TrEMBL record:
<dbReference type="InterPro" id="IPR019236">
    <property type="entry name" value="APP1_cat"/>
</dbReference>
<dbReference type="Pfam" id="PF09949">
    <property type="entry name" value="APP1_cat"/>
</dbReference>
<feature type="domain" description="Phosphatidate phosphatase APP1 catalytic">
    <location>
        <begin position="3"/>
        <end position="125"/>
    </location>
</feature>
<protein>
    <recommendedName>
        <fullName>Phosphatidate phosphatase APP1 catalytic domain-containing protein</fullName>
    </recommendedName>
</protein>
<dbReference type="InterPro" id="IPR052935">
    <property type="entry name" value="Mg2+_PAP"/>
</dbReference>
<feature type="region of interest" description="Disordered">
    <location>
        <begin position="158"/>
        <end position="177"/>
    </location>
</feature>
<dbReference type="GO" id="GO:0008195">
    <property type="term" value="F:phosphatidate phosphatase activity"/>
</dbReference>
<dbReference type="InterPro" id="IPR023214">
    <property type="entry name" value="HAD_sf"/>
</dbReference>
């Protein structure tokens, strides 16, 4: 899928994003384009930026090798590239822009933790909610989903067990030794898996999972630093960016 997206699909601009970049460029903002794409697509990427009137800037692409494809850590290229840029320009403030499709939010959160004074803003383009809502609608329309089946089965067993006990069935007295034996024989199940198996706990929708992911990533950041956006105009009207540009312009004067 990565190769297909990289080599066979034409790049698409977020509508209005080049206008945002042009407006920022007029205010003196410099640009560094960091992509996880391999360096072989440099000519195509350069052409895309030019054809869509994006401001000039440095381009940082990934060096691809067999070893990096097999052993490479997810997000390493972006982390290395962005942290190098921040360290090369320690007096500059930065706006980080990515999307929710991969791990940009997690990478940017780590960068913010290391360079909180240099990161003015983190913008994450929401490419997940629409797909999540569609997946949730599809799941809701299926009455025989895998997890629903598990929950019904477990709920039935619990009801049956409770019923036999209340109807005078055999009752087990749990001694300390029996409890210890039960504990040893019970496999350790992660909390999230226990919730999946628990018929009394509703499963989270994909949209809820995405929203919780964004909340988890932005936890501990300064108020207003982290924004999930759907349209480019949100970037132009962001108060934190506007204030930073105003202050930077005042310092130049």
């Amino acid at each position: 899928m990565i190769l297909q997206n990289t080599f066979f699909r034409k790049a698409k601009e977020i509508p209005g994003m080049s206008s945002v970049y042009q407006a920022w460029s007029a205010e003196g903002v410099k640009f560094h384009y960091v992509s996880n794409s391999p360096w072989q697509v440099y000519p195509a990427l350069q052409e895309f930026l030019k054809d869509n009137s994006f401001p000039e800037g440095s381009i940082h692409l990934r060096m691809v090798s067999t070893q990096s494809l097999i052993l490479g850590k997810p997000g390493k290229h972006k982390w290395d590239s962005i942290t190098t840029i921040l360290e090369d320009f320690p007096k500059r403030k930065f706006i980080l822009i990515g999307d929710s499709g991969e791990i940009d939010p997690e990478i940017f959160a780590r960068i913010y933790q290391r360079y909180p004074d240099q990161v003015v803003k983190i913008f994450i383009h929401d490419v997940t909610s629409k797909r999540a809502k569609h997946a949730d609608r599809q799941a809701a329309s299926r009455t025989d989903s895998f997890y629903d089946g598990i929950k019904k089965m477990i709920a039935g067993e619990l009801t049956s067990s409770s019923s036999s006990s209340s109807n005078g069935g055999p009752k087990r007295v749990n001694t300390s030794s029996e409890k210890a034996m039960d504990a040893m024989l019970t496999p350790e199940v992660p909390d999230n898996q226990q919730q999946v198996m628990d018929p009394t706990v509703p499963l989270k929708t994909k949209l809820e999972q995405f929203e919780q992911r964004m909340q988890r990533v932005s936890a501990g950041m300064r108020y207003g630093v982290f924004t999930v956006f759907s349209t480019a105009t949100q970037l132009l009207h962001d108060p934190e960016v506007a204030e930073e540009l105003y202050m930077a312009k005042g310092n130049l004067e």
